[in-house]
Each structure stands twice: as C-alpha cells, then as structure tokens.
# Entry
Amino acid sequence: MKYVDVKEVFAEIPDEITLAINISGCPIHCPSCHSQYLWTDIGTPLTIESLAEMLQSHIGVTCICLMGGDQDPAEIDRLACWVKENSKVRTAWYSGRSELPKEIKLAHFDYLKTGPYDEARGPLNVRTTNQRLYRVEQGEAGLQLTDITSRFWK
Ligand code: SF4
# Structure
C-alpha cells in the first residue's frame, strides 16, 4: 500500500486537527472521481515506520485519517491498531465502500467514513449525500457506530 501525500486538514473530521494520508491504488473507481490519479499504485510505501515519522513531524494533530486503502482493509486495520497502541492520536478511515469490511475492527478506530462519491447526490457536506461519517462510541452492548454526518451540514 502506498501514499502520495500527507496534509494537515480541518474539515474532514469535525473538531479534530487531522493528518490526512492520501493512499493510492483505489479500487472503487467512482465514475465522477476527482482524484483519478489515486487509482494507480503510485507513491511511497505506507509502513509503521513512515506512520511513526509522520506523527513525530506533525506534533499537535489530534487525529490521523487514512484516506483510501480499500484494496487492503486488513492492512488499514493493522496500521490503525498500531496508531492506537503507540500514540494518543485518534484514528479515522475514509473508505469508498458502502459497507465496512469484516477486517475493520471498531476498537481500532474513532471515526469511519463510508460511501463512494456519487456526483448526483453530492459529497458529505450536502444533505443529499449517500456518504456517511460515523463516530465509534461505547454503547450499552459494546462499541457502536453513531452517524455524525449531519455535523457537515451546518
Ligand atoms: S473512493 Fe475516492 S479516490 Fe476512489 S474512486 Fe471514489 S472518489 Fe476516487
């Protein structure tokens, strides 16, 4: 799995200073994708070591967001698990899938975004969107997903 760039962003996850890692090799191929350069396997290998370096050089971020990586959800889960076990930074995954794959363990994430980009329905910040952002929360029966997509609509 490779990444093409890393940016500190403020809009992707509400209330967080997020380090967004743009992962290439996207297999979803949404028809109206604005980032088709991410469909090919380009960039730098994304490893535990590179994650550790990113965290060291971006002191102050409160969340790390893996943007993409749908070609290997088990690896996404492994990387998020490492961040959880080795930092106080919260973890997020932006997936293009409509449903979360079984490899994703809720305990390793604080936020999960699902849904391909559908130009007719719009992105997360419009009410018609098909995409969803969930916060992983402790419920009475264990970890649960709470839909917080409406936070983008204010
Ligand atoms: S998931 Fe994102 S990068 Fe992949 S095709 Fe859809 S819009 Fe493009």
About this structure: The mean pLDDT is 97. Strands lie at 2-9, 18-23, 44-45, 63-67, 90-94, 111-114, 132-139, 142-147. The chain has two helices and eight strands. The first helix runs from residue 48 to 57.
